[in-house]
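Input.
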Amino acid sequence: MASKTIGNLFRRKVRRGALVALASLAGLLALGEAGARTVRIVQAQTLELRRVDDQEIVVITGGESGGTVELRVDDDVVLAQRVEYNRTRRTLTLIGSATYRTAKEGQNLQGENLVVDLGQEQLTGEDVLISDGNLEIRGSEVERIPGQLRATGGYFTPCAKCGRTPNDYAFRAERLVVYPGDRLVAYRAQLLLADRPVLYLPVVVLPLGDPERQPRLVIGNGQPDGRTVEADLPFSIGSNTLGTTLLRYYENRNPSLGFGVNLRSYAPLPFVDRLNLYALANPKPFASDGTRQVGYDVDLDFSVKGRFPLSLAVRDADYSLSVVQRDIGRSQTDPERNVTRVDFTANAEYPLFSAQFNYNDRFGPEPTVPLSTPLRTPEVVVDPKPYTQGNFSADFRVSAGRYTAQVNPLSRLAAVEAGGKPNITTTRLEEQHALSYTTQPWRNADLTLTNTFTGRYYGTGARTVNLNVGAELTQRFNVTNTVRLRYNYIRIEGTSPFAFDALPTRRLSAPLTLDLNTVPVKDVTFGVSYTRDLFLPASQQPPTTFRVTVNRLPVNLTYNLAHNFSTGELESSDFSLTLGDPNSGKVTVTPARPAQPATATTPAVPAQPATVTRSSNWPAPNLTVTANGAYTRAGGYQPFTVRATVTGDIRTNSFSVYATHDIQTPRLSAVGVEFSGVSAVDPVLNSLSFTGRENLNLITPRLTGSYSVTWRGAYTASTAHDIALEQPDTARESGTITFSVGTVAGRATNWQLTYGGPYDLRRGGFTRPTLSGSLTATRPGQSLAVAAVVNTPGLDQPRTELTRADVSTNSWLFGSRAAISARVSYTRSRFGVYPNDVPTDTLVLDPIQVGIALGNGPRPGAYLTGSLRQTFTWVGGVRQNPAPLAPVIGLTIDRCCWALQAEIDMSLRRYRLGISLPGTDRYPLFDYGNEGLSVPLLPLR
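Output.
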């Protein structure tokens, strides 16, 4: 907007007897509703209201300096130098050169004197250019209505996105119809190559949809079906229905022709939000014994979702329906063959309750195997809203229906009713409720009463009951002390005829529990829990548990004990003790305060000397001692472990020793040491960290441990060992020892070298050592991994030789024009006795792929690719089954709007040529191989 307009944003003047209105620099000025569409001004210089022939016209301009008017029609964007908005006819006239950008289709319409009908959502204009990034259309006259664009004297090309001049190919047509997002249809069209006419076509159809909406044509020839054709042809109905016609042809099947449809529709009918349909009748394939089968296999997948109004309901009721049958690809003996499953659900919600209706059924042969999911034919669920009155609440739920499901193997009555079949059908009524009441009978007391119940009643006369009635009284004393008395009456009984809702067990129980939690002294808590089941004999009563926790520095103790007073036996006991206080060396000093004389309102305060307070009496702030142990009646005493840890000034520096004592043996079972640290000199630029652990098992006996040193967080050296100190005379190995050096794991470029292997203490050396190395490098979208293993001389290994090597890379780039992807592995194994053992070498290329981009511009014009997938084997240095290299070589000429692809497969001796056009992945032109020449457009035999 011009600066002069900013100063008088709300100026007023008279032009042609009308009131001149406003301009806006940054805000939005709504002109009001235009039918179902809203017009808003985003940017303008002047706005003038006129009245001509009883019509109200708003003239919006960008000013004398040639500014641009920007409007928003809902989400569409209008750019023009002058706009006349006829509020009476609800039309926008864009004077001069203008642009209309649609939000839904993402199209730009550029032309002269465009007219937008807001009431009918139409647009007309002359000399209009339409582009959406993938397609460019020009027309002398263009009309846009909902769901279509119509143009006369049109020119269109898929090469618009390439930016090349002239276009590689284009079409000129008398009449064009564009269905945005689906297809373009041109009538009486000329094919232009480099803008020169070469061919006349009565009709041209160009798909514009997503990849799954593109037409597909696959032509093949093989046994036993003979020549085959698969065609998928997209179509649309109106602006809300998209579909694909499915055609199948098999020369040797009976019948030969298959057909189907894949369709999706959005709000096609009232009360329907979404409808999907996939149906395909395919000729039956040949049987496994080669017999030709007669008839069709049918795949059907139909689903619909929607809503419908209900009087007095909180919201519209919603429903969903699904009908599925899958026969294609199933064997004749498959139990799901010729089975149609129907699943319908409807939900409604009212102010006082919600309701649900379910219908799940299967049609077809009677099931011969147990049904994993029950059939509801039908089921009605009523769920009233929870009721609350003061401290009382109640929640109910009722369901009733007819079910078919797997027989409960524990129900003899159900097995008789089913007559030996794996499934049973009967009715069921289920009632669930949960009642709760809370109150405070006296001070610091809480009383809670609950009742939960689930009852199921079946048409066979069976029933199941799951009842839990409970009461809980909690009394608090001095905030930290509580006594809780709990009582539950639990009754689980009955046997369901169905397996899916069978109760896991029967139970009649009435546990009465007393819990006491108290703080007898500061930093000490004590708890006891006693339970008595009124229905169990004394020998089956649960044990009484005791808990003690002490958290007074430097002591932290947790002790648990479970004792059964009915049997007089100790069930379990465990403890964990920690002695230590890292802050024991710190003191808190309270300064002395002089005496304060008495005043008229306050008494005298005597003098107070300075005091020094320590956090605890632990003498060693850097020392922590822990101990833990346990006992169970079934397992006896568990190992008793004592650990002492010394921590340095830096918290990461620590050294600990521990010992484990087996009380039942009794003997010392294991001792060990662990340490870690970081250098304190220049820890940022020259940090050095190290860790280590060592464990000696005195029972086996066996020594295990590992040590590592890391420099600057990037490089690390480590060693690990696992050695048996005692071994049989026939053993030739004591364990393993390894040494490694490399970078820290997780870096973009990582390498590692490792030496070691089996070690024999008796002979004092490695028996079969190896030297292995690995290198991994990663970049965004690229990776390279190399690994190798070399056998080195040892006590039982006389040779040095490469035994394994692997190379794996994913699109590793060399510059901007070459890339390689490869998976290569080499292995060597030996058979026989040294020195007459024979090596077997295997090299697997799976595969090696190389790509080179050709062309000097920023976008390559062609790609040359090569792929080699082969296995080579040598025994004693002699190659087995020698065969020449058989790569697959491909050439792709990429012209953005079309691509030519050629391929030579030396392993199959096959030569193929194809072309890719918009709407197709690849269309073969010819295929020459062992079966001869195949031209899809010509029925060669």
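Residues 412-418 form the longest helix (7 residues).
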